[in-house]
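Open question from group meeting: does this chain pack into something compact, or does most of it stay loose? Before anyone orders reagents, we agreed to write out a predicted structure and look at it together. Recording both the input and the output here so the notebook holds the full record.
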Amino acid sequence: MESFKIVPNLFLSERITGYFHQYYTGFRQPNNPDFLNILKNTFDTEKQSVLIGAREDVIDILMQDIPQIMSENNITNCLCVCVPRARALNTYVATQQMLKEAISIAANNIRGAVDGTELIRRVENTKTTHLRTAANIPNDGDAPYPGIAVATCEIYRNKLMNQNIILVDDIYTKNVNIDEDCIQALLNNGARSVIFYSIGYTRRV
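Structure tokens returned:
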């Protein structure tokens, strides 16, 4: 696991500590975490057995990394919140929500962690930033803009207030700003602190 800094920009008002487990260099590239692509299951074509294997890979990583993050930051309790997928939650089937499921399972098995995966729920579609234009599925909704999380999500402020939050995503890509905007939404809704964590960190090769 490595740490990095997320710097302020139009989407984010303050410097945030981030962590990632490994570099993401592209699907089917050597040593790439391809299980993240599988777990997205964008086209709902993955076999259940393969999805379960990918989910278990993520759980194992979270069980390793989240306690280390808590220890390094002297946090004895935290909410594990996940960055919502781009489209409204009700447009996904259960087999397309297994990253959230993995985060939930891990949080419920880490001492001091609390499952907060239901506390930000996308209710309006936004543009899926990782899809190519030619992809044969709808990709409506707005591209990232400052405040898009607040505008398109239900956010349970009463449960986020004064909490230490570890915000989890599958892949962090600099300059996309979905994660930055989600961090800001948590801060605006009263979070005591926010640490960002992703399994993969996009590195161009």
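Observations to bring back to the group:
The CA atoms of residues 133 and 139 lie 8 Å apart.
The beta strands are 2-6, 16-24, 78-82, 113-115, 120-122, 153-155, 164-172, 193-202.
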